[in-house]
Amino acid sequence: MSSETLQKAREYEKKYSRYADQERPAFHVTGQIGWINDPNGFSAYKGEYHLFFQYHPYSVEWGPMHWGHAKTKDFIKWEMLPAAIAPDSAADCAGCFSGSAIELPDGKQLLMYTGVYRETREDGVTQDIQHQCLAIGDGLEYEKFEGNPVLTAEHLPEGASPNDFRDPHIWKEGDTYYSVVGNRPADGSGSLLVFESKDAFHWKFKTEMDACHNEYGRMWECPDIFGLDGKDVILVSPQEMVPLGVEFHAGFGTIVLLGKLDRETFKFQREALHSIDYGIDFYAPQTLLTEDGRRVMIAWMENWTNVGCKLTDCRIFGAMTLPRELSIKNHRLIQNPVRELENYRTKGVHYKNMIIHHSVNLAGVNGRHIDMTVQVSPLSGNGYNWFRMELAKDGEHGVSVRYKPGTNMIRVDRSRCGGRFDIVHTRDFVVFPHDGELKIRVVMDGNLLELFFNDGEQAATFKLYNKNLDARSITFEADVPVQIDVEKYDLVVE
Length: 494
Ligand code: FRU
Known about the structure:
494 residues
């Protein structure tokens, strides 16, 4: 039975979603209407992939959080479903925050999420209390568990915070369910607490799996954990990062920890750690395992710092990244677009061994819905100091991607992409050297730009801000003649 609050959200999205159709990207998930943030409950269920997300249908601002809902068979074409849950019970009246999903033995789908309610302290300050809740459903309709909340302040170890206790990631090993939840311990930074349960409904605290100790940001939001290529992998989204070289930028970041989860103690032993994405607009990633064994990640294609930057009169705000296939190589997380994207390629244009120098456009190489791979190589015996590609270009606009093989630095600059916002528009980061060669894959869906370097060794995600998609030219140049191969397709998803 759905509540009045949920009913109202469903009616609202049904009535108004068509007013956002003009703004929608072709193959990236957005809300039917209004605001979205983090992906939630990204999971395989009954032969399809489900994606829920933080959702406030009524405006393009963050508000009392609902869970929006979509599903897909191939990660490219999505079917939007009615909102799944709403802030309609005592345990979550101030919001249904982020969480995850798992299939129960009886075939039902379990959503584990953070319920938020507000209380006023003795000193007059209003504070959020966060605790973990459950909802059970069939892929369309969900019922809140009458025993909510199932994980509260009472389950917390000493020093842990009931105000920052959120984003449960549930999984099962053998006959035991585990859930890792972000928390803020006494040192004010972030920690990952693990809880265990035999039935997914009754939980007890196990241990602190890993902690930030104010080293990589503060509160760690939205943890995910999975095994991949012989390693255990944790993804977290730290708030209040301090910049470190060009590896970590200030503010909201995303980090992957590679190592081993000790199955006796449930302590995580880190072996390596790096940024997940080197662009500006990437946060709160989650993964799922496909039926054919691929680990696929999706993230919110925004950054909290910039959410005030919106196109005038927009009716939707926030999008998800393209789902990415993950693997591990040389202690690094490798990311590439899901292979299903290739089914939507049309009008291939290929150039091989082209010598380019001054800024040049190659016939047929342009567009705003494209999948393009560019391979740059020095001419024999002749190094180059810089190579630059400009995308989404017209007389006034453009986004540049520049590579300097001497320092292995990439600089992406979107300051002329059409936005009128005085925010960070440039990112520098280092790619791995390949003898002066560089491979860049560009996936662009209107104003959403995802770059993959050297077969996924690095990814960098950027949102562009141009209402008019006519800025669609692409140019290449270098300080001296270099050789490039270009393979470019239009992407058509109807
Ligand atoms: C991360 C986050 C989560 C929280 C949700 C609220 O972007 O802050 O920690 O559950 O967004 O919408």
